[in-house]
Amino acid sequence: MSEYLPEEIIEKILVRLPVKSLIKFTVVCKSWLSLIKTSPFIQSHLCTTIDFNNQNDVHLLLLSAYSAKESICSEHHWLHWDSPEFGEYSKLLNPFSIFEHKNKRWDLRVLGTCNGLVCLERTHDWVCSPALIWNPSIRKIAMLPTPPICFTSAKYRKYTTHGFGYDSHSNDYKVLRVVSLCDDHSDLSRFTTVVQVYSLARGTWKSLSASVVPVDLQAGGPERPDFVNGSLHTLEFRLIVYHDDHLDQHRKGGGDMFIASFNLSTEEFGEIMIPEILRRDRSCSISRYGESLALIKDKDYNSRDPANCGCDIWVLKEYGVAESWIFLFNIVMVEATVYGFKRCGEVVLKETDDVGQSRMLSLDPKSKQVKVFGTKDHIYYFMDTFVESLVLLDHANAISY
């Protein structure tokens, strides 16, 4: 083909092709292999794919679950179309059998996804540690080294929170690790938090200076950080130390809630205030909403007022501007948990019945129509946007499977 078309034309053609085709074309000739594996081509292909998807409103969602019936817990991952029909695009080939050792399987869970990469953490005895970064589209994984030890004390429980995202300034993918050690001392300084950052480009961990870590930042919350607009976000409480009479120890909490942000490019922390009416509400959570954030206020079910149940949805219309919070709509549904939002406007929910079984629902807030998807054989725990990419193809230490 190079005899008939200039190289720059060939590159413009290749950069518009899907990932599966490009992987096949790496065996056509050495020049195509060299081109497709270069970092500039990989980044150009990613940007072209994202632009095409946005222009044609064609998007994918990654859905992850583990088996509810199998004796050995096994992970399952699917790609679904981000559309009202929510049809299955493909089931991802699970590479984790290569980590089986002496009939034991790593307990791996998705902690985040970005630009076609999926970051997974290993959990063991309530201790979590980021384990690998996976690109299912090209079937490659990059192993993460063990993070440096933060605390040597075994007396008090350590809490961890992990987030994953993209540093656009340096074209790098990073893992945020927050580790907190809480003891029964009333001194605020004894509530110690260490922040570590892993860089895929460097292949190493580093610890941030204690001077840049906010005093209110604490690990161990129930939510995974949401990656939006170049930053990771968690819902935090102002640090107030009080004595828990039931546990007979000092604990932190009690203050107003706010959203803590961590910019992956500058590696600096920031804050976003939430609506004043919700700052003392302990039943709130946050979620990605397009390129901004949603705040979900859960309501306790009251048999005397069954219509006033479910949750309220607030949206930050202009990212970073606290004055732009608006109330969007209310979802009236008993024992329903918001799982995430589709680009088509529908809300994905997990509904739990009286016997503890759950099912996944897709709700159109305008028409109030509900569609059931998934099966009771799986326990779904993660959903986020996904784009097929070549990222990791140029990574020297990435393993093929």
From TrEMBL:
Where is each F-box domain found? 1-45
The record's section on Pfam families has: F-box (PF00646), FBA_1 (PF07734)
Report the superkingdom from the record: Eukaryota
Q: SUPFAM superfamilies, from UniProt?
A: F-box domain (SSF81383)
Protein's recorded name:
F-box domain-containing protein
